Amino acid sequence: MKLQNKTAFITGGNSGIGLATARLFIAEGARVAITGRNKETLDAAVRELGAGTIGLQADANDLAAADVAVNGAAKQLGGFDIVFANAGIGGGTPLGATKPETFEAILKTNLTAVFFTIQQALPHLKPGAAIVATGSVHANAGAPGYSAYAASKAGLRAMVRVLAGELSPRGMRINMVSPGPVETPIWGRSGRSAEEMTAIEKRVLAGVYCEGREQRHK
């Protein structure tokens, strides 16, 4: 197994991409700690993932609680080989109809909290550790009504480049993944109708290169 004897810390691991990643890591032999804001979904995720999985309730925006979660996970796992800074929120911010607190909440969760997750985890990273952050194709897509979300993910991409320069002398690496449309709880909480979400999905997918798809259409 690819991750035998490795340890991983995943924020937002109680649902969506975070939970799917935890399943894969465990299947590949890793010991995993996950965080989540919602105790009910966090407990359900831990039950699903099985014995040995560590679940820690924490909101990534609550830096004190997040620090307790990081330190608790590190103590139980003996440090981290992998940190997946995945916790994030979505939400529309259409021009002319957006409150400042809505815009700021998205930036705080998707950008600021990711930086501090990495900073809090830094003392616990093992030699050769890998960090991954969850970005989005929205950083480049220019989808109307998603200024804050797109800005947060574009900012994250720039930040990851800077952090790569800071981490490489320590023998550590950081990368960002940029998923396209994925049916997660964030997708369902967008506030848009099913028809609107289907249209958005088709528009985004149309701009994603897929070799298999290109071959099928030749």
Summarize the entry for a quick read.
The chain has 218 residues and is an alpha/beta fold. It has a single domain (7-191), classed as 3-Layer(aba) Sandwich (Rossmann fold). The chain is built from 9 helices and 6 strands, in the order βαβαβαβαβααβααα.
Structural commentary:
The protein has about 220 residues and is an alpha/beta fold. The chain has a single domain (about 5-190), classed as 3-Layer(aba) Sandwich (Rossmann fold), CATH 3.40.50.720. The chain is about 50% helix and about 15% strand. It is built from 9 helices and 6 strands, in the order βαβαβαβαβααβααα. It has helices spanning about 15-25, 40-50, 65-75, 100-120, 140, 145-165, 185-190, 195-205, 210-215, and strands at about 5-10, 30-35, 55, 80-85, 125-135, 175. The protein has a 6-stranded parallel β-sheet with strand order 3-2-1-4-5-6, with helices on both faces. Helix 3 packs parallel to helix 4 (about 100-120) and helix 4 (about 100-120) runs parallel beside helix 6 (about 145-165). It is globular. Mean pLDDT is about 90; it is low at about 210-218.
Biggest beta-sheet profile: 6 strands, parallel
**Helix segment count?**
9
CATH domain fold name: Rossmann fold
Q: What integer is the average pLDDT?
A: 89
Order of helices and strands: EHEHEHEHEHHEHHH
Q: How many separate domains make up the residues?
A: 1
Shape: globular
